[in-house]
Amino acid sequence: MASTVPVARHGRHGLAPQPEHQPRPDWRSRLQAWRARLVARPGFRRLAQRLPLSSSYARARENDLFALVSGFVQSQILFTSLKTGLIDALADGPVTMAELASRTGFPQDRLDRLVQAAQSVGLVATGQDGFVTLGDHGAIICSDEGLRAMINHHALLYRDLNDPVALFDGSYTDTEMRRLWSYAGSGRESAVEPEDAAAYSALMAASQSMLSDEILDAYDFGRHTSLIDIGGGEGAFLTAVAKRYSGLRMSLFDLPPVAKRARDRFAAHPLGQCPRCYGGSFLDDTLPRGHDCVSLVRVLFDHEDAVVLRLLRNVRAAMEPGQTLVIAEPMAGNDSRGQRYATAYFGVYVMAMGSGRCRTPDEIGALAKQAGFSRFDIRPCRSPLMATIVVVFP
């Protein structure tokens, strides 16, 4: 008769009981483990670097690994170059090092090091004539207010990552990000203070410019007659929509102090058809009806699954057959470098917030079906780092 006592096997930490019917990895996982063991051998790496067909690949992987190791240093070079005014000082063209020292207030020897570091990551370029100009990355940052806002905002995230192990294991929860985004997942969305609304709305509006064109190029809102943007902030996305579809009737729904800021913004900068702004909780209040398209732009990843399901059920209750829900936000995945970057960055960002997670398109579609929607389609954007679109139908 076979024994039913679990077999004890040796592991890194000594003997560990193993269940009799322990699940086994499939061939893909075993193949990846074999590859990892091979790559871990110094002799194999030296051989790969000498072979003509594999040497360029090996060097590229080596550079990728060092970029990963040095990533935090590079982000601090970026932050310092923006914060000190180095990038802005070059906005109008070539500048001498002496003039840069005057504009930034840096001693010459320290400025030399900053410029050298900034050049290494593509922010600036130094010519043989001694003049400094913007590099490609610096030129983009100089002209993109949303990107600048995010870089400055990252000072909070960097402080939360001072002890990343504590952040990941859950022992550090009183984060800077949680305090800034105190409304998210708190159960008190309708009680958010106006000053808190101003802080997060301004950041969301500034960073929205990087996202709107991606969404509008991937999905044709012109097929609809009316659109309501749920969690629409100060209306940055609707403003972008109005520039392309002037005849589209539009509405916005967000927390009362946020909706008021949107209303004031539209009054100061009127669109062709001024959107109607509704204030309320998208979890607890009945959502406005009568729109053949509903959008959720960068909303779901702020919340845990239970809250997302509750929100989607509330949206479904306000929709009729033939109408469309468009969900757009960065989504997890491994199909491209952009998806992998989105998975890592936004996954850590929302963890620091204390609410939400970066989901795959299929996970979002599954939650939508659980909420009562019938089917969904996935529409990729040019840059998966910015967003992927899931189109959902009642």
Briefly summarize what is shown.
This protein is α/β, with parallel strands linked by helices. It has 17 helices and twelve strands. One of its GO terms (biological process) is methylation.
Write the topology of this structure.
Elements: E1 7-11, E2 14-18, H1 27-39, H2 42-50, H3 52-69, H4 71-83, H5 86-89, E3 95-96, H6 97-104, H7 108-120, E4 124-126, E5 131-134, H8 136-143, H9 145-160, H10 164-169, H11 176-180, H12 194-218, E6 226-230, H13 236-244, E7 249-254, H14 256-268, E8 276-279, E9 293-297, H15 305-317, E10 324-329, H16 337-353, H17 361-370, E11 375-380, E12 388-393
Parallel strand pairs: 6-7, 6-9, 7-8, 9-10
Antiparallel strand pairs: 1-2, 3-5, 4-5, 10-12, 11-12
EC number: 2.1.1.-
Protein name: O-methyltransferase
Domain O-methyltransferase C-terminal: 190-374
Order of strands, main sheet, comes to 8-7-6-9-10-12-11
Low-confidence stretches: 1-15, 184-191
The fourth-level CATH homologous superfamily of the largest domain is: Vaccinia Virus protein VP39
Order of helices and strands: EEHHHHHEHHEEHHHHHEHEHEEHEHHEE
**Helix tally?**
17
Helix content: 40-55%
The global form is: globular
CATH fold topology of the largest domain: Rossmann fold
- Sheet with the most strands, sense and barrel status: 7 strands, mixed
Q: Can you describe what's shown?
A:
By secondary structure, this protein is of the alpha/beta class. The chain has two domains: 69-143, Winged helix-like DNA-binding domain superfamily/Winged helix DNA-binding domain (Arc Repressor Mutant, subunit A), CATH 1.10.10.10; 164-393, Vaccinia Virus protein VP39 (Rossmann fold). It is built from 17 helices and twelve strands. The protein has helices spanning 27-39, 42-50, 52-69, 71-83, 86-89, 97-104, 108-120, 136-143, 145-160, 164-169, 176-180, 194-218, 236-244, 256-268, 305-317, 337-353, 361-370; strands at residues 7-11, 14-18, 95-96, 124-126, 131-134, 226-230, 249-254, 276-279, 293-297, 324-329, 375-380, 388-393. A seven-stranded mixed β-sheet has the order 8-7-6-9-10-12-11, sandwiched between helices. Strands 3-5-4 form a three-stranded antiparallel β-sheet. A hairpin with a 7-residue loop joins strand 11 (375-380) and strand 12 (388-393). Helix 4 (71-83) crosses helix 9. The chain is globular and about 65 Å long. Mean pLDDT is 84; it is low at 1-15 and 184-191.
